[in-house]
Structure prediction request, 977 residues.
Amino acid sequence: MRRASPAGARRKIDGARPGDYSCREEATTTHPATSMDTRLLNDLKKLLGADMVLHQPEELLLYEYDGSVETARPNCVVFPRNKEHVQGIVALANRYQVPLVGRGAGTGLSGGALARRGGIIVSFMRMNRILEVDVENQRAIVQPGVVNAELTAATAPLGLYYAPDPSSQKACTIGGNVSENSGGPHTLVYGVTTNHVLSLEAVLPTGELIRIGSQAVDSVGYDLPGLFVGSEGTLALVTEVTVRLMRIPEMVKTLLAIFNTLDDTTETVAAITAGGITPAACEMLDGWTLRAVEAYVHAGFPLDSAAVLLIDIDGTREEAELQAEEVAEVCRKHNAREVRVARDTRERDLLWKGRKNAFGAVGRFSTTYYVQDGVIPRTKLPQTLRRITEISEKYGFQIGNIFHAGDGNLHPLILFDARDEKQLRGAVAAADEIIEFCVQMGGAITGEHGVGMEKDRLMPLIFNETDLDLMRHVRDAFNPTGLLNPEKVLPIKKGCGEIYSRPLPAAGASPP
Amino acid sequence: MSLASRTLAARLPDIVGAAHVINEPAQLAFYEIDGKTPGAAVRPGSREEVADVVKFAAAENLAVIPSGARTKLGIGLPPARYDIALDMTRLDRMIAYDPADLTLSIEAGHSLSKAIGLLGDHRQFLPLFVPYFNRATIGGTIASGVDSPLRQYYGTARDYVLGMEFVTADGALAKSGGRVVKNVSGYDLHKLMIGSLGTLGVIVSVNFKTFPAPVATRGFVATFESMEKAVEMRHRAAKSALTPLTMEILSPRVADLFSSEAASRIGSGAMPADVLSPKHWAFSSGYGGTEKVLARYESDFQKLAAELGAVHSAVLNSNTRPPAFSRKREFFPIAISSSPATTIMKISVLPSRMKELLSVAERTAETNSLPWAALARGVGVVYLALLPPDTSDDTRRRVADATGQILAAGTKLEANCSIPWAPSAWKPGLKIWGPERADFAQLEKVKKVFDPRGIFAPGRFVGGL
Prediction:
């Protein structure tokens, strides 16, 4: 699912928004990434073993990317195998004053796991053990590098599963999910990552090993897991996660409702929500996306429709059957031309395969695409989709829509050719216009992909300087040197632009 | 009149108007917390006035404690300082309610039960059925972090609070989160405010996700000879396909508490007869849905209860469930009204350790000759009420011993322990917030960011924060 722009096409985004910023408090600007010292590389190799430290340019290439259109070059990538290693890495980063960035599978869509200021990428791929599955208490203790889908695969035979299921779940890690507070189609009723994390063990950028939250519910004190989950790797490097597992429902019904107009589709979603029915998932695929997906997975999606809704309903047999009938009724009332019910697991899996592999399918049609992520109140879906169509026409880009309709969480997919600098700029401008419209509708700038280095400049659309300063102070309390994941989430104060726009230094130990 | 009180008397009327400043000792007594009375109470009428009061307090280094209906001020340590009571009850607007989007934005001083009543017109609700339900405000409910029987299905406030606006220690208005059901824009600072007892900021408004009300609800109660069997019923229900709205285990004495005169005053209506028994432990659960769904729950529950040899079982219908449910909701005030010495522990534990914890609680209460009652939520939260009849020194010592022993045993079981209610005079001798915490340094960092000079409810929270 590579959809990155070529190196060099990185957007210049500093100073894009006016505001009265000052450099005060902006700790991250006080330690421009120094050239990577050979001594540091040697110390890292001594700590982890030579094969656990990558620093040759060809080795680093992959780590310049994640799932976003951003790129940034790290100086090295290291693979800790335990929390002591993580503490050792943090100590070295502090000694050499080098930035640190945690990374899971690199599937993030906002540049959260990119080394924006260079430095060390701490990859958790070697900390990938499920430490405990506690069936009776419906929880698991895992290392951060455990792949999301593997946790569900490991617990399914015990009748349990891990509910947050990002589309990248076959690759993305629980640690990455914790950082980003990831969602997925089935978070509509069961909640996103933060609703499923009970406790974290983490290493702070100061080197302290902390345990927050607790194994039982209702830890005493401030809700620190609530703060750390979704902090996008700017507060701590997570070394262990205790998650809640859900019981696999007795029955799941999967419905495919097919529509001839976009408006009918979006109005159906609004009506389902307003009708007090909460499906387990309610996904929308527009006609264009549908055709791209069908050509790839052959799930039987109707090629001539304007859009479909893919809806899961679960619970006891009685609950699922009843709700499925209610949903089907609402769909028909809003002119669905057909409502299909998956007859068996095979049909159901095929429909969902289409949904979850949609981005891959779209990759067959365009060299690059830009997945956006905005949220709106569910009642505003019809006008927002209309607005996206207008924006698509205005900029001349095909924009596919495949998203978590039940949450009002949009994922417009803007197709463009990143080799053309003008197109890249246009795609970003179109995306910005969509996000601005979401905010006007009372929404937010990101529902599940994170702010990262993609949207820090958009934060002032929803937060004022008081809000942002408070968040900065919280960050600085846990990340006082600013070495951990610098220049993410919170926009840099104006006046620091020159420092920010300075090109990343070349790695001393690994000349490009 | 101290210097601080003179400053207060002179300046507060400028901010909120003389009619909304309270200086009369008799009236100030209403704002007392653990024997401490504020120098003044103010009733701001807008968020800007709240901000101005805090700005003034910050400049004068005066301690501010926000309150709503003042029903849960007994939670926490006695305040180290208490100059201004910030009465939030005039901030009682519903800012925005979008029933079709199932979102609500509402001011902190709004009555909780009235808000839920208004949502009811749209067949929606908030699952916050907390103690002192009829008097509680939105802000007090969120800041005190009390839970609701419905957490079994809906989770706690952290799961459905979407965002918040609050006044910072500088007297600035700040916000986090938003008004949409899914949002990862910026840090979730509002999660820190939940249960923070006003020690980080003054909540002025809260955004919620609302929920569709079940078409109908009923309840099932089964009584057992032993605690182990009642807990086992919870375990089997948790492993079944059922997803009930509430699940609780009640100790025998709860039957007496719930049929007391105080309970009929606090709860709604008379407790249905022959549901609970003072000789038996009970498992109790509520569930919702259509007739077909309700019937499924009942038949599955009946089967489980029979397998475990239940002494008695009963289905609570739309007439008999509300009195029983309201009593479970009001376990705190019912227990408190039964004795001036009531001390309530909250012990949350992994469900698999509930039996062990409940037997420790039972043994400890009895070796210390303390009458007791327990209400344990299915998620593993045990409320243990110690109910000695008097507040003598001897009783105080026995309560301190018992809570200390339970706390030590609970800690071994990886439980989270605190004492959300105890007579004020006893608090210095009790571990109100449980044992010292390994993460205290992190809690302290949070407090220092939000309230560096310690003007918000100083001393009330964990470790005296």
